[in-house]
Structures are given as structure tokens and as C-alpha cells.
Amino acid sequence: MSELVTLQVNGESRQCPAQTRLPDLLEQLGMDPRLVAVEYNGEILHRQFWGETQIQDGDRLEIVTIVGGGSFSEF
């Protein structure tokens, strides 16, 4: 049985297996890593570091989905 760690994702408590890497967590959450920005423990985490970022017990993540499209109109 694998050990679980507890973390906060967008203010909600979640659990994942110990030694989970950030890209794997994003997939587990059903998110497309190409369309999100991640704040990791209060700091924006550059995409180049995602693969080496291992989720630790007590981590806090804010994940923002990038949404394209829309229109702008002046009043």
C-alpha cells in the first residue's frame, strides 16, 4: 500500500500518492498541463521545473486554467 500525502489544491484538501510529480497530479485532476498556470506554495512555478517538482505533504497549489476566446466590445 502506498503512502498518501495531503495537499491543498485551490483551497480544497486533496490526497495523492507520495512521490507524485506535478505533471502527474495535473493529469490525475483531469487538467491539461498545456492550459494551466501553477502557483506552488505561494510562488509561480515556471513550467520548466514541473517535471522535477515532487508533491510533498502540506503543499499548497493554486491552479488556474487558461481560457481562450471571447471578444471585447467598447461601450
From TrEMBL:
Coiled coil: none annotated. Pfam families: ThiS. It comes from the Bacteria. PANTHER family: SULFUR CARRIER PROTEIN THIS. This is Thiamine biosynthesis protein ThiS.
